[in-house]
Amino acid sequence: MQLQRMLGLVVISVGVGSLMFAGCTQQRNFEAEVQAPTTTAQPQERQADVPYVPTPEKVVDRMLKLANVSSNDVLYDLGSGDGRIAITAVQKYGAKRATGIEINPELVQQSRENAQKAGVADRVTFLQQDLFQTDLSEATVVTLYLLPSVNLQLQPKLLQELKPGTRIISHDFDMGKWKPERVERVQGTARQHTIYYWVVPKNPYFS
Fold first, then answer.
1. Is the distance from CB of 192 to CB of 172 less than 8 angstroms?
2. Is 195 helix (H, G, I), strand (E, B) or coil?
3. What does the alpha-carbon distance between residue 60 and residue 84 come to, in Å, rounded to a whole number?
């Protein structure tokens, strides 16, 4: 009888211990589920491909003169920064319209304010857009101050969307195998700047 009582106590102890262990295990798993962060992938907003470096006014003037901007022109400035090229094209060179494409919303707001101050907000538009997603087909002049790699990525889009005869002017950076029709250098305060000029051909092909 004594032996049976002792065996019974051992069985009861093991059973209680197993329940306690199971309970602790379930508790830990539950806590892990509660504490584990729930992550949902959020679409990331595209960041600028090019850092903002304003083009000196002296270079802006030379770019627009080289493009022979007139009242017949619709200018698109890709990566328009504070808006100075688009604003100057309308204010000083009489462009019919100008559109600045800029991905940074703060710079877009600043550009719109600058256009208001210059009195040309009715003819100058600034859009917060990815320049690779922008329809360029109405442009007769396109200005750029990007990077060599971005210029090369952009080249097929320019040749596909722009009409033959459209002028393209780039500050400082060329387009690889697409040789410019003219190259000019402008001495700035701190360094020399280079301006490249192309005209979109009727049958563009570059091997």
1. no
2. strand
3. 8
| Nearest-angstrom CA–CA distance, 127 and 125 | 7
C-alpha to C-alpha distance for 14 and 10, rounded to whole angstroms: 6
As a whole number of Å, the CA-based R_g of the chain is 32
Contact 206, 178 (CB under 8 A): yes
- Amino acid sitting at position 157: K
3-state helix, strand, coil in the chain (%, to 5): 40, 20, 40
d(CA 207, CA 196): 20
Rounded to 5 degrees, φ, ψ at 47 are -95, 160
User: Would you write out the chain's pLDDT as a tens digit for each of its 207 residues?
Assistant: 444 454 444 444 444 444 344 443 333 333 333 333 333 333 334 555 678 889 999 999 999 999 999 999 999 999 999 999 999 999 999 999 999 999 999 999 999 999 999 999 999 999 999 999 999 999 999 999 999 999 999 999 999 999 999 999 999 999 999 999 999 999 999 999 999 999 999 887 654
CA distance 88 to 205: 33
Helices in 72-147 by DSSP H: which ranges? 84-91, 105-118
Tokens for 177? 């195998």
Which strand (E) or helix (H) includes residue 29? helix 2-35
Among the residues of 67-104, which ranges form H helices?
A: 84-91
